[in-house]
Design goal:
The complex is a heterodimer of chains A (112) and B (398). With 112 residues, chain A is mainly alpha-helical. Chain A is 68% helix and 0% strand. With 398 residues, chain B is an alpha+beta fold. The N terminus of chain B is likely disordered. The chains are: A mainly alpha (112), B alpha+beta (398).
């Protein structure tokens, strides 16, 4: 029984690590080069789309089909760094990456 | 004169029923109108209060949004929610999920409304254009001191009560106006009967006393029969006279109750009516248990018996029968006459009610019976079948 639990915990942490990797590996490296943080982008999405469902929907749409009119980045930023390339992640990985992004910066439970 | 006023002011049963029905309907309508009016007034007062509070709440809401804006911009540095002791607030996202709340009653929040009261608080909803921290709806809440509620109810009760009194007064006035012709007609009939009664007394007494003085043994049979018929006629008139006197004066006369030998009284009255029954060849069968006594006014008991017997004769067929039985606590007078329908029985005790227009009379007999029975707490039960006759039971507690 104990062995089972240990195995389960190990698997779970491995999956979690894999999830973090999806976001860390695919989003963070590129954005690190930009002068606007991922957190600032998150708050711009919140300002525009409000709820978790709407924010995630908008992110998914933009990452799959990045267009200038859908971008929340300023014109200067786009001019200087260009639009971000279309995502190469499959649907599952993309969903996981967005979920991690939401969990990391969401305001729920953080307001005092 | 006192007799006239006594009967004129008395309200008869049918009139009282009409009166009650009208008043009931009128009161219902008035109440309905007042409830409707009160509801509208209450709603208006509530709206007025909310409009007054709305200005204050809009100010608080603006202040909250300014605070949210700052928090949104500097969220990486500080995360303290904008608070103010003057109000409590909450923020919700576009999917109605609560982001943060300091509300006393967050369960009562209705994001689709603008301003409302719930659980003794007033809540104001503002929809944002820019969703700071994802906030689409801000809710600002203040305590409702309920002063408006108490004031409104006081007004409703005060003005409602006064209006109700005025309406009911107007209703009574209207009712009297509508009933005036009916009262007038009854009053006229009463007056007529009283006048007639007064004029009847002397001639009837004269006829009856003179008939009694005639020595019938000296008359030839043909004249004796004629005199007999005159006597029957005079006795009928005398009975009617006594009924009318009772009706006209019974309000004034105090009952003189004594222990009456009911068996004797009944036998006497049956004998008296045998003569009246002769004209229709009606035979009497009596089964009177002797020695039955009752504490009652003898005159009134005689009127009760007379009227039941008189009806039994009046509504009987030629050659019919009348059955009289007396037992302790029960008197039965039955006839083989025309009988009554069920609905006629119900109306039988009303004044001026006659079931056979050809039978004559004023229709006051059973009304008198009912009045006397009510005075002495007797129960009257009529069993009747159309075409087969009627049985009237008078019952009293022994």
């Amino acid at each position: 029984m104990e062995r089972l639990t240990v195995t389960f915990l190990l698997t779970a942490s491995l999956f979690a690590a894999a999830d973090v990797n999806v976001y860390e590996q695919n989003c963070v490296p590129c954005h690190r080069r930009l002068p606007v943080t991922l957190e600032r982008f998150f708050f711009d999405y919140l300002l525009q789309y409000s709820s978790e469902r709407e924010v995630k929907k908008a992110l998914r749409r933009y990452l799959k089909h990045p267009k200038k009119k859908n971008s929340l980045a300023t014109e200067e930023l786009v001019e200087r760094y260009g639009l971000m390339p279309r995502t190469t992640l499959n649907d599952d990985d993309l969903r996981r990456a967005i979920d991690i992004y939401w969990e990391r910066y969401k305001v729920f439970g953080k307001i005092e | 004169m006192s007799v006239s006023s006594a009967t004129a002011t008395s309200i008869y049963r049918s009139e009282r029923i009409t009166l009650l029905r009208f008043l009931g309907l009128y009161a219902f309508m008035v109440l309905l109108i007042m409830i409707l009016g009160s509801t509208i007034y209450f709603k208006l007062q509530k709206d007025l209060m909310l409009q007054t509070k709305r200005l204050e709440l809009e100010e608080y809401s603006k202040e909250l949004i300014d605070g949210l804006k700052l928090l949104h911009i500097y969220f990486d540095r500080y995360r303290t929610y904008p608070r103010n002791p003057l109000y409590r607030s909450a923020i919700y996202d576009a999917d109605y999920v609560q982001i943060f709340s300091t509300l006393k009653h967050p369960e009562g929040v209705q994001l689709k409304k603008v301003i409302y009261t719930t659980d003794n608080v007033i809540q104001y909803i503002h929809v944002l254009d820019s969703y700071y921290l994802g906030t689409k709806y801000t809710v600002v809440e203040i305590d409702d001191d309920r002063q408006w509620f108490r004031d409104t109810w006081r007004d409703i009760l005060l003005y409602g009560g006064v209006s109700l009194l005025l309406f009911m007064g107007a209703g009574l006035l209207l009712m009297r106006l509508f009933l005036a012709p009916m009262r007038h007609a009854i009053h006229l009939l009463d007056r007529f009967i009283k006048d007639t009664t007064h004029e009847l007394n002397t001639p009837v007494s004269a006829i009856l006393s003179n008939i009694e003085m005639i020595d019938r043994s000296r008359l030839d049979p043909k004249t004796a029969r004629k005199i007999r018929r005159i006597e029957i006629g005079a006795r009928t008139v005398s009975t009617i006279y006594q009924d009318l006197t009772y009706l006209a004066l019974h309000h004034q006369i105090a009952s003189q109750d004594t222990d009456v030998d009911l068996s004797r009284l009944l036998a006497e009255r049956v004998d008296y009516f045998k003569i009246l029954g002769e004209s229709k060849k009606i035979s009497f069968q009596t089964d009177i248990q002797p020695g039955i006594k009752l504490h009652i006014d003898e005159g009134k008991m005689a009127r009760l018996i007379d009227n039941l017997l008189s009806n039994a004769v009046k509504y009987n067929r030629v050659g019919g029968e009348i059955f009289v039985r007396l037992r302790p606590g029960e008197l039965l007078i039955g006839d083989s006459g025309i009988g009554m329908e069920a609905d006629q029985i119900r109306e039988a005790f009303g004044r001026y009610k006659r079931f056979d227009e050809s039978a004559g009379g004023f229709g006051i007999g059973l009304n008198i019976v009912a009045m006397i029975a009510k005075e002495y707490e007797m129960k009257i039960d009529i069993r009747s079948q159309k075409g087969h006759g009627s049985e009237v039971y008078v019952r009293w507690s022994v």
